[in-house]
Amino acid sequence: MIPAGTVDMIDILNAMGVNDAYLVLASLTGKDLLEILDDNVPDPKKDRPYVKDGPEASRLIQLSGARYVFDRSRPPETRIVESDLIPARTYSVVFEGHVLHRENILMAGRFGKIPFRVTDIPLSTALYGHAVRSGKIFARTEGRVREISETPTPLAICNQLGILVDVSHGSEQTAWDTIETSSHPVL
């Protein structure tokens, strides 16, 4: 786990471990992705330890450009309760190459069955290129993956009911926190 704050190349290499696999490109439907996300919701009955996991490690998948809400108390295949993924749409997905060979993440029965194309881009090169283009990499919680808690927050209730949240009279930090946490647009 990389602590919050500015991230340098040493942090990236340490988080990667000994692997610097080439990236692979696959096409998956939103339905496929939702099933894979559901399969990776923490479940003590099927979770297996991973050597890089620390006490705060999460097996949840961060899917760039997508948000989802899960409920671990629900039965498998129903645990993703909200998402902006469109089930019928086909998405281009880039994985670290070893994911499709060693199943570091659970693939909802698709392990070894997903057609893919190996790129000539190592993960470290992609991350370094992103850091150079953006000027820096900053680790932060974005609110793209959220768990339903026993007591929903007022923001979660508004999102569930489709109520638009107005942050125009709050502080700048309140506005940014709401934008990062909300699964719906804010005003």
Topology:
Elements: E1 5-7, H1 9-16, E2 22-29, H2 30-39, E3 68-70, E4 80-83, E5 90-96, H3 99-102, E6 116-122, H4 123-134, E7 137-139, E8 145-147, H5 154-161, H6 172-181
Parallel strand pairs: 3-8
Antiparallel strand pairs: 1-7, 2-5, 2-6, 3-4
Overall morphology? globular
CATH architecture of the largest domain: Alpha-Beta Complex
Could you give the count of β-strands?
8
Question: Given the structure, what is the number of helices?
Answer: 6
Notes on the protein architecture:
The chain is α+β, with helices and mostly antiparallel strands. It folds into two domains: 5-148, 5'-Nucleotidase, C-terminal domain (5'-nucleotidase,  domain 2, Alpha-Beta Complex), CATH 3.90.780; 150-187, no CATH class. It is built from six helices and eight strands. The strands form three sheets. Strands 5-2-6 form a three-stranded antiparallel β-sheet. The longest helix is centred in the C-terminal third of the chain and has 12 residues, at 123-134. The chain is globular and about 50 Å long.
